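To: structure subgroup
Subject: Chain for Friday's discussion

All,

I'm putting the inputs and outputs inline so they're searchable in the archive.
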Amino acid sequence: MIDDDVVLGEGSRVWHFVHVSRGARIGRSCVLGQNVFIGANVRLGDGVKVQNNVSIYEGVEIEDDVFLGPSCVFTNVLEPRAFLEKKHEFKPTRVGRGASIGANATVLCGHPIGAYSLIGAGSVALRGTRDYEVVVGNPARSIGWACRCGVRLPAGQGERSCAVCSLRYGIEPGACRPLT
């Protein structure tokens, strides 16, 4: 079901039992898997892959080339109550370019997810992530850094190279950045 006032980018594919709500903007070459819900006014960048059973609620913005694993969950209110209207309390969540969120992970609203970061399957992210950061567990905790290609970088500080694609990174306390 595609509501009125929806933009569905060229080359995007929508599978069975999907609902895209009014005002949503879906970029080019996206894939919306089976049983996906896209809330009102949600923005998805180009090349986003949303696996089966994912709901992306109003207040969530997904940048280009993001992977959302099966049944991952986003929230948009920190203290929900069925008997109280809390739409005025929606907290925005931005998922940075190239990030991956694993199957059955939960992302609490109001915190940015860094570019090319990885949230492991089943993790509960109570805070945001930094660019290239890898977090796992409940609650999610940092276990290192990942290359743009998704491979974990060698532990430690200083210059590190990806074992698969050879991209180089500078790692210092609390930050990882690509080297040119």
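Points worth raising on Friday:
The CA atoms of residues 67 and 96 lie 11 Å apart.
The chain has two domains: 7-146, 151-180.

D.
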